Structure formats: structure tokens, C-alpha cells
From TrEMBL:
Residue span(s) of domain HicB-like antitoxin of toxin-antitoxin system: 9-56
Gene3D superfamilies assigned: 3.30.160.250
Full protein name: HicB-like antitoxin of toxin-antitoxin system domain-containing protein
A Pfam family annotated for this UniProt entry: HicB_lk_antitox
PANTHER family, per the entry: ANTITOXIN HICB (PTHR34504), UPF0150 PROTEIN SSL0259 (PTHR34504:SF2)
Organism: Candidatus Roizmanbacteria bacterium CG23_combo_of_CG06-09_8_20_14_all_35_49
Amino acid sequence: MKKRKILEYNVIFQEEKEGGYSVWAPELPGCASQGESFDEALNNIREAIQLYMETSKKVSSAPSYRKQFIVPVQISYA
């Protein structure tokens, strides 16, 4: 029996003006998807990552980048 790896990737969601969400995995070039709802977009990017892994020649268990963080910053201007 083949041992399965659990991999974790950060994904970024963007709400679209027309409705729905775009979503992509920055550490997997070209791996992106979309959905009419957040849950649909999440399921679609999971499927896209699975397909990416199946077609990728090299699957790395360690990301080749530093962790990224998104933090809201408030400023005041006149």
C-alpha cells in the first residue's frame, strides 16, 4: 500500500465584481480556478491542485518559498 502525503498550500481568493470568486495557489504556477460561491471556489481549487499534482513531474512536500501573510493596514488621509 502506497503511503499518502498530506500537502498544504496557501491559496488566495479574490471576490469578482461580476460575482463569484477567483482563487489561485501562488506556489503552483498556473494553478487557478473560480467559483460562483466561496465553497464552490474552494472545492474547485482543491480539484485544480490535485490535477496539478497528477500532471506535475515533481511533487515537493516542502514549499520552495517563504510563508506569506496578508494583513490589513489602516491609514488615514485627507
